[in-house]
């Protein structure tokens, strides 16, 4: 497709670099902006550049934060000996929204992915190891996605942490049948794990509020 | 959902104002930009603001163009007495890519849509009328979408143009069964139109190249 204007060609090509957005959608979005007040484009443009240039990360847990130390890490009522390791800020938000976790986090900023050329040094793993070595950590909860990259990262972290002079407990979030999910539609591996990792019934009813 | 940073809140809220993009997708896109070189965000931000602020429209046909008069309107080999009326630049690009049309265009910049508060004065209809009155136009082809808004705009234009002292022919693009489409899956209205507007077989085989 040939566009009748260089400015149009540029905006379409830049928007279409975003994941999941093709040239057609990019053109639709550009034409949409054209019909909106110029302020909307100004705000969007400004928000993108401000975010990318000025975003800061918590010095302790590496989560996105406007302050040097994020609200969670600086909250004295949280359990600072319990660290939940997650991929990115979305996982922190998801776990926080459950209201069931009172520990702190460590945000890796991605997963080890040999196919995408992402190795351990691209993630904030050294910072996590330092944290475990220097503060008295009781437990590390590995809460990564149940994907190949997630498993690779889990194993890497497990071996790395096991080799340290300090020995925090290392746990991982439970895999099983989702609440409200029907058994017959669950895949075999999930179902097998949920049987192998069964828990006392009394414990389970206590968790239903 | 509460975001741990003001900059993150802003970028998500601005991206999510785009049509068809929700807050989840907006967050995913923002985090994607964070993993890319800062130049990508700079280019995107710049392309948006340049496009919105500096985009120009052809003085004749109102299509997006970098020059005062677009390439099509300034091409002496095109038939300037034949005007195809379309909604936006995407339609011009689609018709141009067929290679079957040698006339010129008039880009309305939208459709009349009472529900969205878009009236005739929001579109470049006055400019079209002026063009028809002042240049010797032989034929106007209405090539708008077959939607309620498209039909409304078709009728409005038809009445407006019919009332002029000059009388160009007014035609509309053929509605019918798409090439390669199976008859049984076509809707009744389209099928009925394609029977009512049947054409001589010999004319049809000449169009197959």
Question: Explain this structure to me?
Answer:
Two copies of one chain form a homodimer. Chain A is built from eight helices and six strands, in the order H-H-H-E-E-E-H-E-H-E-H-E-H-H. With 209 residues, chain A is of the alpha/beta class. Chain A has a four-stranded parallel β-sheet with strand order 4-3-5-6. Chain A has a two-stranded antiparallel sheet with strand order 1-2. The longest helix of chain A has 17 residues, at 38-54. The first copy, chain A, is globular, with a radius of gyration of 22 Å. The interface between A and B is large, with 60 and 60 residues.
Topology of this protein?
Two copies of one chain form a homodimer.
Chain A: H1 6-15, H2 23-35, H3 38-54, E1 56-57, E2 64-65, E3 79-86, H4 89-98, E4 103-107, H5 125-134, E5 139-142, H6 148-162, E6 169-172, H7 188-196, H8 201-207
Parallel strand pairs in A: 3-4, 3-5, 5-6
Antiparallel strand pairs in A: 1-2
Helix pairs in contact in A: 1-2
CATH architecture of the largest domain in chain A: 3-Layer(aba) Sandwich
The rounded distance between the terminal residues' Cα atoms of chain A is 57 Å
Give the topology string of chain A: H per helix, E per strand. HHHEEEHEHEHEHH
Largest interface: which pair? A-B, 60 and 60 residues
Number of helical segments with 4 or more residues of chain A: 8
* Average pLDDT figure of chain A: 91
Count the strands of chain A? Answer: 6
Widest sheet: strand ordering of chain A: 4-3-5-6
From the 3D structure, determine the CATH topology of the largest domain in chain A.
Dna Topoisomerase Vi A Subunit, Chain: A, domain 2
CATH class of the largest domain in chain A: Alpha Beta
Domain unit count of chain A: 3
Major sheet size, sense and barrel closure of chain A:
4 strands, parallel
CA radius of gyration of chain A: 22 Å
User: What is the SS-derived class of chain A?
Assistant: alpha/beta
Shape of chain A: globular
Low-confidence stretches of chain A: none
**In terms of quaternary structure, what is this?**
homodimer
